[in-house]
What does this fold into?
Amino acid sequence: MPRLTIDGREIEAKAGQTVMEAATEHGIFIPYFCWHPKLSVPGNCRICVVGVAEKDGGEWVEIACNMPVSEGMVVFTNSEKVRARRKATMQFITLNHPVDCGICDKAGECTLQDYHYEYNGERSVSVDAKVHATKHYALSNRIVLDNERCIQCTRCVRFTREISKSNGLGLVNRADHSLVRAAEDGSFANDAYSDNVIDICPVGALLSRSFLHKARVWYLEPTASVCPGCSRGCTVNLWHRRPEWRLKAPGMQAANASVDRVTPLENPAVNGPWICNKGRDLPKLLGRARAEVAMLKGKPADLPGAIAQARSLVAAARRPVAIVSSWGSNEELAAFKAAFGTRLEAFVKADHLPEPGEVVEDSLLIRADKNPNTAGATALFGDRAPAIPKDADLVLVWGEGLDFGLIPPAAKIVYLNAWLQPENGHADVFIPTSIQTERDGHYTNFAGVTSAFSKCFAKPAGVADAETLFPALAAAGGGAP
Ligand code: SF4
Ligand code: SF4
Ligand code: FES
It folds into this structure.
């Protein structure tokens, strides 16, 4: 294990590590644009220069991201020579970069902006006009590119070659005429992981079309959550309005309780630093029309009345069956089990199946099971496919996805669902339930890893939480949740 000294601190590196890796692992910061811990090292931006002491007392300057550690090495990350070189590099990188931070979605999260203030902070020394390039160039129907902002770090290109393997992006032309472009075969448009390039672009060159100019990032705050899009259960941040930046204009209230964007929440045990595009599109999935009113045979009812009616149907049933949701949290599933025990014969169903056109499964993250908690549900209720006995006289259906045609015609139906769907009105009792953004909980993914999600919005009035609803449905004389 080579030992080296960085800024006077002796550290032990792993054999084969670069100075950048060893420094990062020991909490010593060296700036970088093109380096990314999960990508190959092109060494093209030169911002990561560090000084290395020479035997004669001199100091040579080299990039940290491509320099292997060696025994006895003495490294400086902040010497006069290093500061001068970094400043010159920043002058060079910003030579043709437009000063449009005021209208750039990356402002507030931009490495170039931060490094400019940290390592340069002065006006451009160039007397030449900036080279112009294409702005608002559509790379795909999801991503727009501003070539003037691009610093040619090639992170996006390497991502499509090394991680998503679509080979969807490349650089064309040379020098200050270099442009990132999508391959002509459409592979970038079909790359199920393409939106990760938005996160890893160190500047505001690659932007999400669905989030474009929607909010300054400092208007938003993240809530840790789990993508329910498949049984991988990627951990994500759901970004939504901070209370102090709530919109007050008429008609804008819904925007205060909606997810504006989704980004990966790095998790080595599940998804690393990536998510697929389906995870980015969660605002659409979570923003579907909600069911907010309980019903008795399709007629609106108040929540306590609907719960009382459901409770008496369950109590009176001789052969009750439950179809359990694979979108229920571990807490809700446990509450169901504790409330009903073996009183109901339970089967776990897939609430969601693959949609036409979506990638069903691949070797990176995407799983064929499009439900987040099949593992948690089947651990408690077994993995038999739903088979409703013909003599079932009550079927309690929890969540989406069951074909109501499979329910014996004479059986009573108690239905719990969060969304506005035609089946709701066909149930004897319909009870609207909360969704993932309105409660805390955990899902267990296909590999047995359990991840937490947290509440970011209040549930609508008239909607029940399944975790407290189940004891109320099972208990004689139980109250409303
Ligand atoms: S678009 Fe962004 S990630 Fe891609 S090369 Fe340019 S600066 Fe780098
Ligand atoms: S791989 Fe699955 S869990 Fe991860 S972001 Fe995509 S759909 Fe969501
Ligand atoms: S981070 Fe080392 S050269 Fe770019």
